[in-house]
Amino acid sequence: RKEYVDLYLNYMFHESVREPFEDFMQGFVRGCPSKQWKMFLPEELQVVLQGHNKYDWHLLEKNTRYWYYSHLDQTIRDFWAVFHKLREKKKKNFLAFVSGSDHVPGYGMGCFQLQIVDPKETNPDEVYPSANTCNYSLNLPR
């Protein structure tokens, strides 16, 4: 039985995925030559590729820039009051909404800069918030 289980596990985790993995690896190495990746420890490479999964939501608030808003505007104060009451999963969902990922980029939360923009709509009650993930921007109607 042990030999059967060992052979089965070897097939499932190695042999059955060998060809697709080799195709993936060939394409990955073509776009990202492996010489450059060897300078990273596995944990560092994971952060480079996936980003951080440690969050400091108050630092995010502190680093946020405002366009046509002030951090003292009632809309902004209400936004942060509600945001800080959200569960961790909802905060990560918000991060994914404005950045395209629920992980913090590799350079860390201290350098991550959210922008909150007043889209200057004539009738803000008829407009939903939207995001521009390229520049981490939240369009938040008043």
From TrEMBL:
Which GO terms are recorded in the biological process aspect for this UniProt protein?
protein polyubiquitination
Q: Report the GO molecular function annotations.
A: ligase activity; ubiquitin protein ligase activity
- Annotated coiled-coil positions are none
**UniProt-listed Enzyme Commission number(s):** 2.3.2.26
Q: Among its keywords, does the record have Transferase?
A: yes
According to the entry, every stretch annotated as the HECT domain falls at 1-142
Catalytic activity annotation: S-ubiquitinyl-[E2 ubiquitin-conjugating enzyme]-L-cysteine + [acceptor protein]-L-lysine = [E2 ubiquitin-conjugating enzyme]-L-cysteine + N(6)-ubiquitinyl-[acceptor protein]-L-lysine
User: Which residues are catalytic?
Assistant: 134
| Top-rank EC class of the record's enzyme | transferase
How is this protein named in the record? HECT-type E3 ubiquitin transferase
Provenance organism: Atlantisia rogersi
Task: List the top taxonomic levels of the source.
Answer: Eukaryota, Metazoa, Chordata, Craniata, Vertebrata
